[in-house]
Design goal:
There is one protein chain. The protein has 94 residues and is mainly alpha-helical. It has a domain at 27-89: Orthogonal Bundle (434 Repressor (Amino-terminal Domain)), CATH 1.10.260. Helix content is 50%, strand content 12%. It contains five helices and three strands; from the N terminus they run βββααααα. It has helices spanning 29-40, 44-51, 55-62, 70-81, 83-89, and strands at 3-6, 12-15, 21-23. A three-stranded antiparallel sheet has the order 1-2-3. α1 (29-40) packs across α3 (55-62), α1 packs across α4 (70-81) and α4 packs across α5 (83-89). The protein is globular and about 40 Å long. The model has no long low-confidence stretch (mean pLDDT 85).
């Protein structure tokens, strides 16, 4: 089981066995959003509804016009790591 910690700046770090933290690299935000959505098997419309953001927001993220920040970035990282848990916390909207 992987242990992760949400930092105050929205980063998610993996907690290693020795207690140290390892950052998770998501250097291309547009590709990361597309990858997360594709792994969930959702259309842009369904994904936007599931995470309660406007469709245009998801489109802008995936086209690289905007990057998810703060809580949105943290939510996407959680969905990437533990999608079932993340969507359950959102009320099962998957």
């Amino acid at each position: 089981m992987m242990r992760v910690r949400l930092k105050a700046d929205g980063r998610i770090v993996e907690i290693l066995a020795d207690g140290s933290e390892k950052g998770m690299d998501h250097s291309d935000p547009a590709a990361f959003v597309r990858q997360v959505r594709a792994r969930c098997g959702l259309t842009q419309v369904a994904f936007a509804e599931s995470i309660e953001v406007p469709l245009e927001t998801v489109r802008n993220w995936e086209q690289g016009k905007r990057s998810p920040r703060g809580p949105a970035r943290a939510l996407l990282k959680l969905i990437d790591r533990v999608p079932d848990t993340a969507f359950a916390a959102l009320g099962g909207r998957r």
